[in-house]
Design goal:
Belongs to the cyclic nucleotide phosphodiesterase class-III family. The chain is an alpha/beta fold and about 270 residues long. The chain contains seven helices and 13 strands. Helix 5 links the parallel strand 5 and strand 6. The structure holds fe (ii) ion. The site of fe (ii) ion (FE2) has 7 residues, from loops.
Length: about 270
């Protein structure tokens, strides 16, 4: 099973750019073309928040139009730039899988079970599952203790060293950790929010932040680093469930030189390379 993780697309209305600079729709177009060109194609695309920049209906509509060529299920959850209400209104088919107020739901149709978590807090940049979100997760995991499960959310529950982003991370990470530790079938936790590929462990499992298809938060590990972004090579994450492990790749979007064959000094093709 191959899971693509597209995150932090920050779509703006037609004619507008994110922060007056980034043509996020063009970047998402490239990301969608990239996904369509993959062989094998991902079975599912999880979209871990900040679909929009300002939670506007026209931004969700534009996101949907840009995602429309994708033939596989696209599973969104809100980030801090979105809202639960805005996302559920824009995706009625997702709303139908939830309690109608928070975008917490389970995708059970694949080898790896996906638990999609809504970490957004209305009108606030930080994340929080809250009592209801934590209870949802605990109950969802209790329902299928023998099914390997991946948890997807927007806000990371761990520090990254990028101080202005860490100030916005998941506030109830300790409670999340306690739940994951009670359910050993959880194989990984994937997040968005920081727009950079970041890897650590959390609750004894792999925890990753996926890179973004457009602007990235500047890599500044000084405690008083300013909130800025850079335009680095756009990317998305590919999570391969194979051999009982979750293997996470960064897939760069765009045209790069290659593929080139490997040759030895005598000009003979090397068939098996490491
Ligand atoms: Fe974002």
């Amino acid at each position: 099973m191959l899971i693509a993780q597209l995150t932090d697309t920050h779509i703006r209305p037609e004619g507008a750019r994110a922060y007056g600079r980034v043509d996020t729709a063009r970047h998402m177009e490239a990301a969608v073309a990239h996904l369509l060109a993959l062989d094998p194609r991902p079975d599912v695309v999880v979209v871990t928040g900040d679909l929009t920049d300002f939670d506007l209906p026209e931004e969700y509509a534009r996101f949907r139009a840009l995602a429309a060529p994708l033939p596989m299920p696209v599973l969104p959850i809100p980030g801090n730039h979105d809202s639960s209400a805005g996302l559920l209104a824009a995706f009625p088919e997702v709303a139908a899988r939830t309690d109608g107020t928070r975008a917490n739901y389970v995708e059970d149709g694949f080898a790896l079970r996906l638990v999609m978590l809504d970490t957004s807090v209305a009108s606030a940049p930080h994340g929080e599952l809250g009592a209801a979100g934590l209870a949802f997760l605990d109950a969802a995991l209790a329902q299928a203790p023998d099914r390997p499960t991946l948890i997807c959310g927007h806000h990371p529950p761990f520090l990254t060293g990028i101080a202005h982003m860490d100030a916005q991370n998941l506030r109830d990470g300790a409670a999340l950790e306690a739940i994951i530790r009670r359910h050993p079938q959880v194989v990984g936790l994937v997040c968005g929010h920081v727009h950079r590929a970041i890897t650590t462990t959390f609750a004894g499992i792999a925890a990753t932040i996926a890179p973004a298809p457009a602007h990235v938060v500047s890599l500044d590990l000084s405690p008083d680093g300013p909130a800025t972004f850079h335009m680095e090579p756009p990317a998305l994450a590919l999570h391969l469930w194979t051999g009982g492990r979750l293997v996470s790749h960064v897939s760069q979007i765009g045209a790069y030189p290659g593929p080139f064959p490997f040759f030895d000094d005598a000009g003979r093709a090397i068939v098996a390379v490491a």
